[in-house]
Amino acid sequence: MSAKYIIGSLAGSFVIAYACDYFVSDVKIFGGSTPGTVSNKEWGEATEKMFQAWPRTAGPPVVMNPISRQNFIVKTGSE
């Protein structure tokens, strides 16, 4: 019996959340506009091309110890 109330309230909360997101983000009830970096496809393509052109370098893998806040370099058996 209580399952129908739980499921109904969950569905209702999702509807309310979607409506709030739609009106704030898409309708822009608080004003503002979409930035050009989001709406301009050419800018996105140029940015993606730039990111793919960067050389990717990385150091050796590390193990993080959050308690002592020390990072240890992992030694592999082949080195």
Fold and architecture overview:
- It comes from Zostera marina.
- This is Ozone-responsive stress-related protein.
- It is a single chain.
- This protein is mainly alpha-helical.
- It has two domains: 1-32; 33-73, no CATH class.
- The protein is built from three helices and two strands; from the N terminus they run αααββ.
- The chain has a two-stranded antiparallel ribbon with strand order 1-2.
- The relative contact order is 0.06.
Key features?
flat; 3 helices; mainly alpha; DUF1138; 2 domains; two-stranded antiparallel sheet; Ozone-responsive stress-related protein; 79 residues; 10% strand
Give a brief description.
By secondary structure, the chain is mostly helical. The chain is built from three helices and two strands; from the N terminus they run αααββ.
> What structural class is derived from the secondary structure elements?
mainly alpha
How large a portion of the residues is in β-strands, by DSSP E?
5-15%
> Approximately how much helix is present in the residues?
40-55%
Count up the helices.
Answer: 3
- Element order, helices and strands? HHHEE
- How far apart the termini lie comes to 64 Å
> Can you list the strand order of the major beta sheet?
1-2
The number of domains: 2
Query: Kindly state the mean pLDDT as a whole number?
Result: 84
Rounded radius of gyration (Å): 24 Å
What is the number of strand segments?
Answer: 2
